[in-house]
Amino acid sequence: MTEPPTHDGIAAATVYNDISRDLILSFKYGGRIALATMLAKLIAARLPPAEGDDDLPLLVPVPLHRLRLWRRGFNQAALLAKELAKEGRGDLLVDGLVRRKSTPPLAGFGSKLRRSILSGAIAINARRRDAVKDRRVMLVDDVLTSGATSNACVAALKEAGARSVTIACFARVLSEAEPGNHP
Questions:
Q1: pTM for this structure?
Q2: Which of 55, 84, 148, 171 gives 20 a disulfide partner, CB atoms 3.0 to 4.6 angstroms apart?
Q3: What are phi and psi of 130, to 5 degrees?
Q4: What is the mean pLDDT for each group of 10 consecutive residues in the chain (183 residues)?
Protein backbone atom coordinates (compact mmCIF):
# COMPACT_ATOMS: atom_id res chain seq x y z
CA MET A 1 0.00 0.00 0.00
CA THR A 2 2.96 2.32 0.48
CA GLU A 3 4.01 1.79 -3.15
CA PRO A 4 0.88 1.34 -5.29
CA PRO A 5 1.43 0.00 -8.80
CA THR A 6 1.73 2.50 -11.62
CA HIS A 7 -0.20 0.29 -14.03
CA ASP A 8 -3.98 -0.11 -14.14
CA GLY A 9 -4.10 -3.91 -14.00
CA ILE A 10 -2.46 -7.09 -15.20
CA ALA A 11 -3.83 -9.90 -17.35
CA ALA A 12 -1.57 -12.96 -17.42
CA ALA A 13 -2.39 -16.17 -19.25
CA THR A 14 -0.56 -18.27 -16.69
CA VAL A 15 1.87 -18.30 -13.81
CA TYR A 16 5.56 -18.68 -14.61
CA ASN A 17 6.48 -22.31 -13.94
CA ASP A 18 8.49 -25.08 -15.61
CA ILE A 19 5.96 -25.56 -18.43
CA SER A 20 5.45 -21.87 -19.23
CA ARG A 21 9.22 -21.32 -18.94
CA ASP A 22 9.86 -24.02 -21.56
CA LEU A 23 7.29 -22.45 -23.90
CA ILE A 24 8.78 -18.98 -23.49
CA LEU A 25 12.35 -20.21 -24.01
CA SER A 26 11.32 -22.09 -27.16
CA PHE A 27 9.48 -19.02 -28.45
CA LYS A 28 12.04 -16.39 -27.52
CA TYR A 29 15.38 -18.15 -27.97
CA GLY A 30 14.51 -21.32 -29.89
CA GLY A 31 13.12 -19.47 -32.90
CA ARG A 32 9.67 -21.06 -32.54
CA ILE A 33 7.86 -17.85 -33.45
CA ALA A 34 4.79 -19.80 -34.56
CA LEU A 35 4.03 -20.17 -30.83
CA ALA A 36 3.02 -16.49 -30.84
CA THR A 37 -0.47 -17.37 -32.09
CA MET A 38 -1.17 -19.87 -29.31
CA LEU A 39 0.39 -17.71 -26.59
CA ALA A 40 -1.65 -14.69 -27.71
CA LYS A 41 -4.87 -16.73 -27.71
CA LEU A 42 -4.15 -17.75 -24.12
CA ILE A 43 -3.52 -14.11 -23.18
CA ALA A 44 -6.71 -13.01 -24.98
CA ALA A 45 -8.72 -15.50 -22.94
CA ARG A 46 -7.72 -13.55 -19.79
CA LEU A 47 -8.64 -10.12 -21.14
CA PRO A 48 -11.94 -8.45 -20.34
CA PRO A 49 -14.27 -8.17 -23.32
CA ALA A 50 -14.18 -4.87 -25.20
CA GLU A 51 -17.39 -2.89 -25.28
CA GLY A 52 -17.29 -2.20 -29.02
CA ASP A 53 -14.64 -0.92 -31.43
CA ASP A 54 -14.51 2.47 -29.69
CA ASP A 55 -13.33 0.73 -26.50
CA LEU A 56 -10.35 -1.12 -28.00
CA PRO A 57 -7.01 -0.34 -26.38
CA LEU A 58 -3.82 0.52 -28.16
CA LEU A 59 -1.55 -2.57 -28.10
CA VAL A 60 2.02 -1.47 -27.40
CA PRO A 61 4.76 -4.11 -27.07
CA VAL A 62 7.68 -3.77 -24.69
CA PRO A 63 10.51 -2.59 -26.95
CA LEU A 64 13.83 -4.26 -27.60
CA HIS A 65 16.98 -2.27 -28.19
CA ARG A 66 17.90 -2.27 -31.88
CA LEU A 67 21.03 -4.39 -31.25
CA ARG A 68 19.07 -7.11 -29.47
CA LEU A 69 16.38 -6.97 -32.16
CA TRP A 70 19.04 -7.35 -34.82
CA ARG A 71 20.63 -10.32 -32.99
CA ARG A 72 17.36 -12.13 -32.24
CA GLY A 73 15.63 -11.20 -35.47
CA PHE A 74 12.28 -10.40 -33.87
CA ASN A 75 10.67 -8.80 -30.85
CA GLN A 76 8.65 -11.49 -29.07
CA ALA A 77 6.38 -8.89 -27.42
CA ALA A 78 5.64 -7.34 -30.82
CA LEU A 79 4.69 -10.76 -32.23
CA LEU A 80 2.30 -11.29 -29.30
CA ALA A 81 0.80 -7.81 -29.76
CA LYS A 82 0.33 -8.46 -33.49
CA GLU A 83 -1.52 -11.71 -32.74
CA LEU A 84 -3.68 -9.97 -30.11
CA ALA A 85 -4.61 -7.38 -32.75
CA LYS A 86 -5.58 -10.23 -35.11
CA GLU A 87 -7.82 -11.54 -32.30
CA GLY A 88 -9.57 -8.17 -32.28
CA ARG A 89 -8.18 -7.23 -28.86
CA GLY A 90 -6.85 -3.80 -29.83
CA ASP A 91 -5.15 -1.55 -32.32
CA LEU A 92 -1.48 -2.36 -32.87
CA LEU A 93 1.13 0.35 -32.30
CA VAL A 94 4.32 -1.66 -32.65
CA ASP A 95 6.67 1.31 -32.29
CA GLY A 96 4.96 3.29 -29.52
CA LEU A 97 7.94 2.86 -27.22
CA VAL A 98 11.67 2.82 -27.89
CA ARG A 99 14.53 1.36 -25.89
CA ARG A 100 17.11 4.15 -25.99
CA LYS A 101 19.96 2.25 -24.42
CA SER A 102 21.05 -1.34 -24.54
CA THR A 103 20.56 -3.15 -21.25
CA PRO A 104 21.77 -6.60 -20.25
CA PRO A 105 19.23 -9.39 -19.83
CA LEU A 106 17.69 -8.77 -16.40
CA ALA A 107 17.33 -12.40 -15.31
CA GLY A 108 19.08 -12.99 -12.03
CA PHE A 109 19.13 -9.34 -10.92
CA GLY A 110 17.14 -8.07 -7.94
CA SER A 111 14.32 -5.57 -8.43
CA LYS A 112 16.34 -2.58 -7.18
CA LEU A 113 19.20 -3.29 -9.60
CA ARG A 114 16.70 -3.91 -12.44
CA ARG A 115 15.17 -0.46 -11.84
CA SER A 116 18.63 1.11 -11.84
CA ILE A 117 19.64 -0.63 -15.07
CA LEU A 118 16.42 0.49 -16.78
CA SER A 119 16.65 4.11 -15.66
CA GLY A 120 16.30 6.22 -18.81
CA ALA A 121 16.32 3.19 -21.08
CA ILE A 122 12.69 3.29 -22.27
CA ALA A 123 10.85 6.28 -23.73
CA ILE A 124 7.86 7.13 -25.85
CA ASN A 125 8.56 7.25 -29.57
CA ALA A 126 8.25 10.99 -30.24
CA ARG A 127 6.52 10.28 -33.58
CA ARG A 128 3.83 8.24 -31.77
CA ARG A 129 3.12 10.55 -28.82
CA ASP A 130 -0.15 11.85 -30.36
CA ALA A 131 -1.35 8.29 -31.00
CA VAL A 132 -0.95 7.45 -27.29
CA LYS A 133 -2.47 10.63 -25.86
CA ASP A 134 -5.88 10.04 -24.22
CA ARG A 135 -5.93 6.35 -25.21
CA ARG A 136 -6.30 3.22 -23.14
CA VAL A 137 -3.07 1.30 -23.67
CA MET A 138 -2.34 -2.37 -23.21
CA LEU A 139 1.37 -3.01 -22.72
CA VAL A 140 2.24 -6.44 -24.13
CA ASP A 141 5.13 -8.65 -23.01
CA ASP A 142 5.97 -12.34 -22.77
CA VAL A 143 6.85 -12.53 -19.06
CA LEU A 144 6.22 -10.16 -16.16
CA THR A 145 8.94 -10.70 -13.57
CA SER A 146 9.77 -7.95 -11.08
CA GLY A 147 7.82 -5.29 -12.94
CA ALA A 148 10.88 -3.09 -13.51
CA THR A 149 10.61 -3.15 -17.30
CA SER A 150 6.84 -2.77 -17.33
CA ASN A 151 7.02 0.08 -14.79
CA ALA A 152 9.49 1.93 -17.02
CA CYS A 153 7.15 1.41 -19.99
CA VAL A 154 4.05 2.44 -18.02
CA ALA A 155 5.78 5.61 -16.83
CA ALA A 156 6.73 6.58 -20.40
CA LEU A 157 3.21 5.88 -21.70
CA LYS A 158 1.50 7.81 -18.91
CA GLU A 159 3.92 10.71 -19.29
CA ALA A 160 2.86 10.80 -22.97
CA GLY A 161 -0.76 11.14 -21.90
CA ALA A 162 -2.11 7.58 -21.97
CA ARG A 163 -5.45 7.50 -20.12
CA SER A 164 -4.66 4.11 -18.59
CA VAL A 165 -2.10 1.35 -19.05
CA THR A 166 -2.82 -2.30 -18.36
CA ILE A 167 -0.29 -5.09 -18.81
CA ALA A 168 -0.98 -8.22 -20.85
CA CYS A 169 1.57 -11.02 -20.66
CA PHE A 170 1.78 -14.73 -21.20
CA ALA A 171 3.38 -15.65 -17.85
CA ARG A 172 3.68 -13.85 -14.56
CA VAL A 173 6.33 -14.61 -11.98
CA LEU A 174 4.70 -14.66 -8.57
CA SER A 175 6.82 -13.72 -5.61
CA GLU A 176 6.89 -15.94 -2.53
CA ALA A 177 5.97 -12.83 -0.54
CA GLU A 178 2.62 -12.35 -2.30
CA PRO A 179 -0.47 -13.53 -0.43
CA GLY A 180 -1.65 -16.96 -1.50
CA ASN A 181 1.74 -18.15 -2.76
CA HIS A 182 2.82 -20.08 0.27
CA PRO A 183 2.86 -23.89 0.04
A1: 0.89
A2: 171
A3: -65, -30
A4: 78 95 94 95 90 82 92 94 96 95 71 76 94 96 89 94 96 67 38
